[in-house]
Amino acid sequence: MNIRLALFLTMLFSITSTAPSLAAGDRYALVIGNAKYPDADAPLKEPLNDARDVADELKRDGFNVDVGENLTGEAMRRAFDRLYGKIKPGSVALIFFSGFGVQAARQSYMIPIDAQIWTEPDVRRDGFSLESVLGEINNRGAGVKIALVDASRRNPFERRFRSFSAGLAPVIAPNGTLVMYSAALSSVVSDNGGDRSLFVQELLKEIRVPGLMAEEALNRTRVGVTRASRSEQVPWISSSLAEDFAFIPGPPPGPVTDVAGRPAEPEPLAPPPRVETPPPPKLPEVALAPPAAKPEDKNDAPAPSFADDPTVKSLTARLADNPDDGNALYRRGQVYASKGAYSLALSDFTDSLRLNPKDVEAYNNRCWVRTITGDLQGALKDCNEALRLRPSFVDALDSRGLLNLKSGQVKNAIADFDAALKINPRLTSSLYGRGLAKQRNGAGPEGDLDIANAKAMDPNIVKEFASYGVR
Question: Residues 438, 446: contact at Cβ < 8 Å?
Answer without folding.
Answer: yes
